[in-house]
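Entry 14. Ran structure prediction on the chain below.
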Amino acid sequence: MVQGVDQITAALNAPDSTFKVEKHIFADGTHISYYPMLVPAAFASMLPPAGAGRVTTAVSPDDLEQVVGGYLLPDGRIITIRRDGMKIFARVTGLPGETELLAETPRRFFLPGGFDVLYTFEGAADSPANSLLVRVNGTQSRAIRKATP
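Output, structure tokens:
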């Protein structure tokens, strides 16, 4: 198996190739046992480091409260933003769990882990946000704040 991988690596690393290939042998791995180790190892080498190029800032509880609420996306899903102490979390209808958002400014937040996801809350700085611009890998969607009951 290793010989076959060496041949593939050599072909993909040819002088005119645009691929960057790294070979990693998992010690004591078998044909099937390496799969659970392969995906995290591959993602770690493909994704930028956590928070790449982004700097977090402290945001006051009052500023965090200005973005808390539900925001309706054009496809009908709702992004729910909730606060827990000095942190805020986002949950999107239809997706499992919620994600902590890190503040870059009082109205701009990003996901930890180096992902290209940016949440920008729109509206006057001294009042609740009226919409949310979500950018994921360069694609943007605007979500409108839902009226609170």
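The longest strand covers residues 78-84. Will compare against last week's run tomorrow.
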